[in-house]
UniProtKB/TrEMBL annotation:
PROSITE patterns according to UniProt: MFS
The protein, known as: Major facilitator superfamily (MFS) profile domain-containing protein
UniProt xrefs under PANTHER family: CHLORAMPHENICOL EFFLUX PUMP RV0191 (PTHR43124:SF3), PURINE EFFLUX PUMP PBUE (PTHR43124)
Biological source species: Paenibacillus vortex V453
Residues of the Major facilitator superfamily (MFS) profile domain: 1-375
SUPFAM superfamilies linked: MFS general substrate transporter (SSF103473)
Membrane-spanning intervals of the chain: 43-63, 70-86, 92-110, 131-151, 157-175, 202-225, 237-257, 264-282, 288-309, 316-340, 346-366
Keyword Membrane in annotation: yes
Amino acid sequence: MLKIVFPGLAMIAVTYALARLSFGLFLPDISNSLELSESDSGLVGSTAYLSYSIALLVSAALIKKLGQHKVIVIAGLTAVLGLSGIASAQSYLHLVISMFIAGIGSGLASPALSQAAQSALSKQELDQGNTWINSGTSFGVILTGPIVLLFAEHWRLSYIFFAIIAIGVLYWNYYSIPSRYDQKQAMDQKMNWLSVMNKSKFLLLASLISGISSSIYWTFSRSYITVEYNMTTNESVVFWIIMGVAGIVGGAAGGFIQKLGLAWSYRLLLFLLFISIVLLTVPLNWTHYFSAALFGSSYIFLTGLFIVWATRIFSVLPALGVSLSFLALGIGQALGSFFAGRLIEMTSYPFSFILFAGIGLIGLFFPTEKAADSC
């Protein structure tokens, strides 16, 4: 199992945390260097989401045509190219193109790695393998935090360092994840999209609602604690690192789900996510860090659960289920971030965070076990 999990975890860390999430942490210095306006910066960030969504949409077809091993390699290559492009960006257009390329890898990596795990791991190992791979985002976030503190003013060197790490991870995945497990012949049947959407409707709704609810935290939590509680830059980065460290616990989601069951695990994690968002509105220092720890762990747990849920629904082509779930999650986060910003301007940070936390509770009413057992 470790031969699949460790390189897969590293690939998720590179494609999600280094190639996508790190941009927000370095944004002030990048904006100063390239003289970007706020609207320019927003558009640059959205290009990574756009390429991520496009990659998710085509990932199942690519895996069907090329096999998961080649798609994993493509994901790593796009991360290397994107990170190198960001490091060398001399203009707004150069940065936009580089961010677009950097975002592709995250949309390809999760579906391809879930397919690789399905092919190479036993049924007993599958849930744990998938959720540990998914926790790679947290390891990447932990890595980016200290680098921001040490090298924020030298963001180009940081991205060169990230690109070197991406090359090493690409090499590791190429030689560690065997291509002999590609099972393209099992995916040659014609896709019935009506049946696909019917099977996955509750998974997609749960992913969408979770994306909307969590979006305000990913986008505005650092702004909240600096504006409302006057936290310093260093304190806010520590807050971010705590989220990453806590997210490692999410790697144990597979075993947790097997013991508690998919339905109860989902509802418990959704409730903990609600508590973590609400806690940020409590004006006490310790609650902010506790909120970060609870949010990081419950979010990674929850996304790991969506992978498990998807692989149970689509036992032959889990990459399709993971692609659809993460696409719904991403759409929810994009919509949520847009409306959260408007709501904060119209009302306040506390009201907006509590409202978005409440939206997440809608997901408690979606069935899980019945859908998972239907395949």
